[in-house]
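residues and backbone:
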Amino acid sequence: MKWVTPQADWPESWRHVYGFDRVEVFGDMSNPGHRRAYRARAKQLLEMAASVLKPGDRVLDLAAAQGNYTLWLAERGYDVTWNDLRADLEGYVRLKYERGTVRYAPGNAFDLQFEQPFDLVVITEIIEHVAHPDQFLAQVARLTRPGGYVLLSTPNGGYFLSDRPRFSETPDPSRFEAMQFQPDASGHIFLLHEDEVAPLAAAAGLAVREIRLFTNPLTNGHLKTAWTHRVLPPAVLDALESLTHALPRPLVRRLHTAMAVLLQRTDGAA
């Protein structure tokens, strides 16, 4: 992936997503906790994708924004299609493109149609922005071939600082429709809990193959701990996260901020 430098003629949408890239990808250390959390998520997701894909497999990166996973997966030898509701971001992704097969299909995720389904559909930090995550997963399943996979990441609703409602306990999610599809953390509607994932996936014709919880308050820089990232070696932070991973599962659910889930489309997907 090429590093880019802002230009005077860039549209505001490019400047907005570049602000995230500057910290998450391009080396700005102004927010080390966020940077580390983003890179931890990328590591988990790329490992999980590699566990089920072979070179040349078709991947859809849905609601992909600045396209980092699109580009990373293309560089690893997969045939990747970028999508986002904001069609103007395609130009920004093209600026960063370096190698591999990348196709572009902007548009609303609920309206997309392709001639062939995909081997893997990637939905990173998306499901918490929709008012009907059950309908969203059903649409994602339709875009996935039978036996293919869905890879999602989302904030962990079981984290002890989480302040968003459970989808499974919301009788009328339609009341959130006016605020869905909003970017960034301010647009979060529901945060899924680990025990909600399997029934939600099953209703869409998907089965859970793996769930990973990761990044604790220290490694994410929460509770005013971001300063520790400037003084502690990365190996120490890694060891502290390994320690919390080894705790009983109920504590793991409470202490980790992020969730990555690998789902597989089963026969009879919705």
About this structure: The chain has a mean pLDDT of 94.
